Amino acid sequence: MDSESIILALGALAQPTRLDTFRLLVRHEPEGLAAGEIARRLDVPQNTLSAHLAIMARAGLVAATRHGRSIVYRADLATFRALTFHLVRDCCDGRPELCPPLFEDPAPCCPPTPQGSRP
């Protein structure tokens, strides 16, 4: 990612509703969520959410697919991975042995949820 794309993505996430939206979409990968469902779960007016989703889409953080009358949004995990990698690629001045907690398996902090029990 180039610096401009990184700044755009970080700026898109630097707002509470957009950060909550992105985190919600990440939890609902790979199926995504309809815009109305996102608005309902976050208790945000649909027109407000629409503006936030547009900002996130321009930053490459979400993608939308039309399914009938609904628009389903998904987190763009490839962009998120590239952003995360860019932020940590110079960890410990090229000495990754000094940064093991940063690169450990995320499973301990991200236990799988039983089907149907997502918030």
From TrEMBL:
InterPro entries listed in its UniProt record: ArsR-like_HTH, HTH_ArsR_DNA-bd_dom, Metal_resp_trans_reg, WH-like_DNA-bd_sf, WH_DNA-bd_sf
Keyword set includes Transcription regulation: yes
Cited PROSITE patterns: HTH_ARSR_2
A GO term for molecular function: DNA-binding transcription factor activity
Database matches in SMART domains: HTH_ARSR
Keyword Transcription regulation: yes
Domain called HTH arsR-type: residue spans: 1-95
Coiled coil stretches, renumbered: none
Keyword entries, A-Z: DNA-binding, Transcription, Transcription regulation
Name of the protein in question: Helix-turn-helix transcriptional regulator
Native species: Gluconacetobacter takamatsuzukensis
